[in-house]
Each structure stands twice: as structure tokens, then as C-alpha cells.
Amino acid sequence: MYFNTYIPCPATFFMINLIFTGAVAQMGERQNRTLEAAGSTPVCSIPITLRCEMKEKLVLISNDDGIFAEGLNVLCRELLSLFSVAVVAPEVERSSIGHAITLNMPLKVKEVNLPAGIKGYSVNGMPADCIKIAVYCLLGEKPDLVISGINLGSNLGIDVLYSGTVSAAAEAVILGIPAFAISLDCLENPDFSFAADFAKKLASLMLKNKIPENTLLNVNVPSTHGEKPRGVKVVPLSRARYRERYEKRINPGKKVYYWLTGEFMEEMDTAESDTRALREGYIALTPLSIDLTDYRCINYFSGWNLNE
Which of 15, 52, 56, 286 has its CA 20 to 30 A from that of 236? Predict the structure, then answer.
């Protein structure tokens, strides 16, 4: 069964005008009355009851690789021993989609059976959509923690601005929910076991400790070929950039198209960073903020005599 919903929030990356709970409730009630009149199932009257009686904490899992991705399902199996788990994730891969949300088409939610042995809910939208619709319409309660991942491939440095994985965690923090994104530095034959084990440990720590306001954690786990990572380092984002280029190609119809390629310039990393920690075999943990203000420059630009 599919459910249609519409969330009227204009947004840019990490900056969203939040809908107050009362406004959301009123919107849901108006839409429910419309759907009932049309003979459809109301959206916000279908809460997912997933909190087990013996497990007091509810963890919401999402990603940008798609709901059937191996990393997400390995993570689910690992967390089920300690927590109640809900899964709301994109129906298909949405890598590098950033913090996009869906405004010009209805969102459809479908119940699916996951390889992890539980039911999940796929959404025909973006990672940030999944967090929004889970919190506003599907769960029936606010999750205690959101985890986005485990992503296939790292999210280092400037990647965090493009990453749907990181944006799902950021959306949770915007909604007032502690969150972290976790990625494995591997693209072929991945072993997610160490990443899943660390995610469970970090989830327990985050639920026991106070998280600074507006802060999410970005975690990258090295691919160590069966060996344990050397440890964990809390480090800043890499300042390295990509050396990008577009390959010009011609399709069978003689039309020109372009394909973005490039390589990460690791040699630019000389100080402690997520890239360097990962390269040395450590798990890299980087605190990020959804407040994008550069406070160092407030006084500088104020001195530009902008009012004259």
C-alpha cells in the first residue's frame, strides 16, 4: 500500500524553516479529511509500532544507498540486539543528492521485507525526506537516535556537502534528534562488521551522554581487510579537494554528453584530518554543525561600511 504526503518546507542545504508541531498536526488533519473523503487511507494515522517492550530506546536508520543496501541491513542486524529499530530509507540509491527534499511530487511509502529480518519502509524521495516523513507521519513517536549508513564508500572533507548519508543525519539534528552518519572506506567486497560494531558502541554512548546543540557526528571506518581498526581519532574535516574534470562523450545518436570524473588530492593533507586518520588505519570521527555561520568573519564583513 502506498501513502501520499506533502511537506511544505522550502529548504537549502542544512538550512530549513522548521514546521512547528501544531502546524504539522493541522496539515495532517486537513489532508486526512481530504483522503478519507476520497476513500484513501489517512497519512498521519498509520504510526509504525516498533518499540519493543524490553528495549527502551528507538533507533531510526536511513541511508542514501537505498533500503536494500547491504550496509544498512548489516547495521540493522547489529543494533537489534540492543535497541528497537525502525528503518525508513530511499527506495533506490540517492548518493550525492545532498540535502535535497521533495516539493513538487507526492511521496510514496511502501512496506518492505528487509534482508535483516524486519520490515522497513521505502520512500520514493531523498534521504532528508525519509527522516522528515518518519518523524512527522510514520513512527508515531520521536526516535531517540538516528543513524545514517552504513554507506558504501567514505564521506571525507568536502564530501559532507554532497553526501545524502550525512544530510539524513543533519536533518535529524535539525528536528532535534541526536544523529550520526557512518561510512566504510570501501567500494568493492565490503566487510561492514567492524563498522556495524562501532556504530552500536557509538549509539550507546550517544544515548548516555549529552550531545552539543546543532551537532552531528560523521564517522568513517577504514577497510582493514579483516583486521581491526587501530583505534578512533576525533579529527577535523580534510581540506583536500578533488581534481575534477568532465569527459566529453558522444552517444549512439550523435549527441554530446559529459561525465564528471576526478581524483581526491590527498597530498594536500598535511595536518590531522579525517582523510589522514583513515589512511593510517583509524576510525575517523568528525563533529559537524548545522550552523553554517562563519563567526570568524562577522566583524570583518561588518567593517565593510555596508550602510554607507
Answer: 15
- HSE value, Cβ hemisphere, 13 Å, CA-based, for 78: 23
Which pLDDT value is given to residue 56? Answer: 85
Look at residue 41 and tell me if it is in a domain.
Answer: no
Q: What's the confidence (pLDDT) of residue 239?
A: 84
Span 268-307, pLDDT tens digits: 666 799 999 999 999 999 999 999 999 999 999 999 989 8
* Cell digits of residue 63: 541511508
Is-contact 183 159, C-beta < 8 A?
A: no
Question: Would you give the distance in Å from CA 26 to the centre of its chain?
Answer: 27
Phi/psi at 273 (5° precision): -160, 170
> pTM of this prediction?
0.81
DSSP secondary-structure letter at 78? H
Kind of pairing between the strands at 58-62 and 15-16: unpaired
Of 192, 215, 199, give the one whose Cα is nearest residue 147.
Answer: 199
Average pLDDT estimate for 202-213: 96
Q: Are 114 and 80 in contact (CB under 8 A)?
A: no
Q: Are 161 and 108 in contact (CB under 8 A)?
A: no
Q: Which helix (H) or strand (E) holds 179?
A: strand 179-185
In this structure, is residue 231 part of a structural domain? Answer: yes
DSSP 266-300: GGG--SS-HHHHHHTTPEEEEEEES----GGGHHH
pLDDT, greater one: 16 or 149: 149
* CATH classification at residue 56: 3.40.1210.10
Q: Is the pLDDT of residue 51 over 80?
A: no
What is the chain's alpha carbon radius of gyration, rounded to the nearest angstrom?
21
Beta strands in the chain (DSSP E): 4-5, 11-12, 15-16, 58-62, 84-90, 107-113, 119-123, 145-152, 179-185, 215-222, 232-234, 242-250, 256-264, 283-289
Could you tell me if residue 274 is inside a domain? yes
* In contact, 99 and 162? CB cutoff 8 Å: no
Domain count, the chain: 1
Give the lowest-confidence range in 41-50, 55-64, 77-86, 245-254: 41-50
Residue 66 and residue 92 in contact, taking contact as beta carbons nearer than 8 Å: yes
